UniProtKB/TrEMBL annotation:
Pfam families: IspD. Gene3D superfamilies: Spore Coat Polysaccharide Biosynthesis Protein SpsA, Chain A. Pathway: Isoprenoid biosynthesis; isopentenyl diphosphate biosynthesis via DXP pathway; isopentenyl diphosphate from 1-deoxy-D-xylulose 5-phosphate: step 2/6. Keywords: Isoprene biosynthesis, Nucleotidyltransferase, Transferase. It catalyses: 2-C-methyl-D-erythritol 4-phosphate + CTP + H(+) = 4-CDP-2-C-methyl-D-erythritol + diphosphate. One of its GO terms (molecular function) is 2-C-methyl-D-erythritol 4-phosphate cytidylyltransferase activity. The keyword Nucleotidyltransferase applies. Belongs to the IspD/TarI cytidylyltransferase family. IspD subfamily. The keyword Iron does not apply. The record marks 7 as: Transition state stabilizer. GO terms for biological process: isopentenyl diphosphate biosynthetic process, methylerythritol 4-phosphate pathway. This is 2-C-methyl-D-erythritol 4-phosphate cytidylyltransferase. InterPro entries: IspD, IspD/TarI, IspD/TarI_cytidylyltransf_bact, Nucleotide-diphossugar_trans.
């Protein structure tokens, strides 16, 4: 992003990106039992100030993350030890525009199938890389993965008891050796704020 602070703390329509994201899951109609926010240790004090200033009404548990996404999700799961069953969603803190319908549909699909992930079809042509150049891929057979990614709680716990591998890029890749992953229609507005252009587009979409 090239900003002076972590991208989840950048201002979006007068509030930090992370506050917008958390409010999506705090929507009463979803009935989420607990929200766990996982952050690096050096960001905890900053979040405390932002929480008090912008969203003191948000009830959540804060956990210290690890060196990788895998380790951070595992730390978040540790906060749910009092729950024996249910569906848990893992979501990027920098996806502040996720429609409530996408969140709800992914939860419902996970409750039915055990594991569900929001995804959209690529709009552009896609090519793979080879030793001699590149080759065309059939984009009708490809999907761009988003979050939330939802799982039966015990299934996700079992997956995160396995050793961490470099091939784990998201939670679906951690779980897929144990259980099939159901895809749920995502939304092209469900941006992951990564570059300055993403922030500008999010401003427009929220407006």
């Amino acid at each position: 992003m090239g900003a002076d602070r972590p991208k989840q703390f950048l201002e979006l329509r007068g509030e930090p990106v992370l506050v917008h994201t958390l409010r999506r899951f705090a929507e009463p109609s979803l009935g989420v039992a607990r929200i766990v926010l996982v952050l690096p240790a050096e960001q905890l004090s900053v979040w405390q100030e932002l929480h008090a200033r912008y969203a003191p009404e948000l009830a959540l548990t804060v956990a210290t993350g690890g060196a990788t996404r895998w380790a951070s999700v595992r730390q978040g799961l540790a906060q749910l030890k009092d729950y024996g069953a249910g569906v848990v969603a893992v979501h990027d803190g920098v996806r502040p525009l996720t429609p409530t319908s996408v969140i709800e549909n992914t939860y419902v699909a996970a409750a039915r199938h055990g594991a569900a992930v929001a995804a959209v079809a690529p709009k552009d042509s896609v090519r793979g890389l080879s030793a001699t150049g590149s080759y065309a891929l059939d984009r009708s057979r490809l999907r761009l993965v988003q979050t939330p990614q939802c799982f039966e709680l015990e299934l996700l716990r079992r997956a995160y008891q396995l050793p961490e591998l470099p091939t784990f890029t998201d939670d679906a890749s951690v779980v897929e050796d144990l259980h099939p992953i159901q895809l749920v229609p995502g939304d092209y507005r469900n941006l992951k704020i990564t570059t300055p252009e993403d922030l500008l587009l999010a401003e427009v979409l929220l407006g």
